[in-house]
Q: What sequence folds into this?
């Protein structure tokens, strides 16, 4: 019997396991469906581009999207210790203060304003560059400034020529402008939550880690979660929880598990023959995600990282990393970007950019004909489209039906077009003139908003930031309350990306870690009252 059972050893789960087990009188069990994080590519920052396919993800596809010309999008989600923090691109951004102030003021999330959450961002952070009231310097999560590629520096100059001011720090309140991203790395290695938080905690006698173990059901008795069923090597085991079951299985895994446990929309559960334990309409609703659109340019020479696709150069880079811990292998490639406006009526920038000094690095984008390219992608940071996660069947092994409803709202499509136009503007600045031969995608022939719309529909893809499917709030459709307790049940919380009522205006990992840090204090009764 454990005090706390944590389901899902991802970005949030590893933080919670480490924080809760700081109290030696409590026993904590962390259960992860995937394997331990022993794959060496996990720990090399550059390895992320190998992670969006292969054995360390669930292999999901999103349902054919009405808004994306009926295409099926690959939908990579981690299935390994550390979860998304073990496979992501390591870009470290926390959104803007307005995001959290809106959660508190407009989404019924008392206690989640920026002033409330800032201490948890600061507590998590071990920043190698920035200090002061907005940053932590000795937290577990390694956050580093890199040594950007020369072409990445050209991007930052070009963005300034296009009118975006230089921004040294995207995480100190204001986001607008262009600059270099910090990354969740330390000393040239990925700082996943498995490495940063869990590794040192595993020595504690009160923390048990079970990997390669999939939770098939949360067991609820008399309105209280009392344990879980896990499948290990095809055999079912029961684990009991004295105090709480905490679900941190991610924005796809958490609603799926709740529904398989009979917690969700009654009608949907009944359709699949699942006994309704607790009718909770909001489970699986409100799925939203950032939709990336890439502008790709062909370079007139080997100015970027594409040369490292050749074995000879890989050997050089590998040696540099092995000897000095530096060079292209120590880079996440996505070293710079920025935030700017599509819709000037918005209070804060609504489009985010990521620059890559290569082409074909990310899933689904091919190389350029000449072999050397660069990529500038953009997404609308506060999409209005909402989709869902639903069960395909009552069988744990079946992938859920994931419909992020990309570009379901016309407004989002307009912002995607804005993003392409601004990307083109940046890539056509004098700073790039010596390097770029021509635009490869969308290509010179694609002109005007109607053509760019068609391009976005054909090429838009997930930025891998699903959130919102167990939404926090105080209305009837909320899945969890502002203490992250599942509404209407005792002993059960959800504490991960799925609780965000609206996505933050940036990449999501830092915000998830903050959520878990705050959840740990709430569970331990240490959080200030809302
Ligand atoms: C390819 C990729 C690139 C990204 N790039 C960035 C980036 O550069 N910067 C950034 O800030 N964010 C990025 N993100 C997003 C960020 O990593 C996620 O938002 C974050 O990791 C989500 O954390 P989570 O704890 O909610 O879920 P996850 O980290 O996904 O953890 C959920 C865990 O639960 C496990 N699980 C699920 N179901 C069960 C079950 N039934 N039983 C047991 N275990 C289960 C899963 O295997 C997984 O390990 C990226 C994500 C991906 C996938």
A:
């Amino acid at each position: 019997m454990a005090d706390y059972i944590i389901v899902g050893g991802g970005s949030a789960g590893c933080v919670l396991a480490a924080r809760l087990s700081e109290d030696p009188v409590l026993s904590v069990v962390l259960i992860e469906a995937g394997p331990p994080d022993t794959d060496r590519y996990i720990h090399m920052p550059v390895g992320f581009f190998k992670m969006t396919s292969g054995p360390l993800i669930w292999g999901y596809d999103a349902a054919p999207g009405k808004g994306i010309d009926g295409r099926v999008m690959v939908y990579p989600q981690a299935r390994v210790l550390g979860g998304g923090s073990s496979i992501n691109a390591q870009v470290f951004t926390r959104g803007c203060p307005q995001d959290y102030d809106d959660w508190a003021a407009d989404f019924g999330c008392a206690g989640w304003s920026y002033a409330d959450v800032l201490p948890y961002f600061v507590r998590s952070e071990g920043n190698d560059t920035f200090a002061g009231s907005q940053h932590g310097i000795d937290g577990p999560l390694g956050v580093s400034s890199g040594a950007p590629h020369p072409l990445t520096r050209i991007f930052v100059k070009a963005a300034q020529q296009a009118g975006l001011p230089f921004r040294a720090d995207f995480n100190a309140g204001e986001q607008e402008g262009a600059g270099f991203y910090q990354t969740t790395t330390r000393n040239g290695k990925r700082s996943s939550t498995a490495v940063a938080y869990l590794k040192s905690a595993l020595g504690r006698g009160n923390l048990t880690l079970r990997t390669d173990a999939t939770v098939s059901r949360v067991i609820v008795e008399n309105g209280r979660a009392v344990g879980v069923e896990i499948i290990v090597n095809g055999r079912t085991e029961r684990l009991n929880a004295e105090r709480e079951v905490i679900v941190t299985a991610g924005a796809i895994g958490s609603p799926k598990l709740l529904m398989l446990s009979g917690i969700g929309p009654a009608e949907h559960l009944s359709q699949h023959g699942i006994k309704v334990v607790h009718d909770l309409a909001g489970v699986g609703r409100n799925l939203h995600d950032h939709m990336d659109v890439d502008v790709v340019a062909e370079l007139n020479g080997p100015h970027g990282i594409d040369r490292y696709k050749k074995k000879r150069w890989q050997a050089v880079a590998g040696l540099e990393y092995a000897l000095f811990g530096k060079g292209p292998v120590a880079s996440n490639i996505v070293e710079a970007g920025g935030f700017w406006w599509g819709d000037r009526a918005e209070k804060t920038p609504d489009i985010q950019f990521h620059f890559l000094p290569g082409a074909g690095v990310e899933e689904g984008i091919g190389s350029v004909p000449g072999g050397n390219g660069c990529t500038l992608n953009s997404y609308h940071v506060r999409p209005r489209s909402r989709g869902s996660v639903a069960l395909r069947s009552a069988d744990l092994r079946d992938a859920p039906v994931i419909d992020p409803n990309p570009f379901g709202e016309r407004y989002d499509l307009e912002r995607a077009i804005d993003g392409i136009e601004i990307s083109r503007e940046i890539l056509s600045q004098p700073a790039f003139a010596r390097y770029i031969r021509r635009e490869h995608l969308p290509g010179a022939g694609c002109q005007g908003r109607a053509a760019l719309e068609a391009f976005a529909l054909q090429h838009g893809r997930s930025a891998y930031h699903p959130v919102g499917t167990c939404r926090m709030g105080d209305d009837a459709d909320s899945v969890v309350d502002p203490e992250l307790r599942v509404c209407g049940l005792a002993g059960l919380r959800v504490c991960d990306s799925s609780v965000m009522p609206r996505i933050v205006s940036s990449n999501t990992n830092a915000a998830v870690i903050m959520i878990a840090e705050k959840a740990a204090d709430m569970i331990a009764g240490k959080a200030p009252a809302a």
User: Anything to note?
Assistant: The chain has a mean pLDDT of 96.
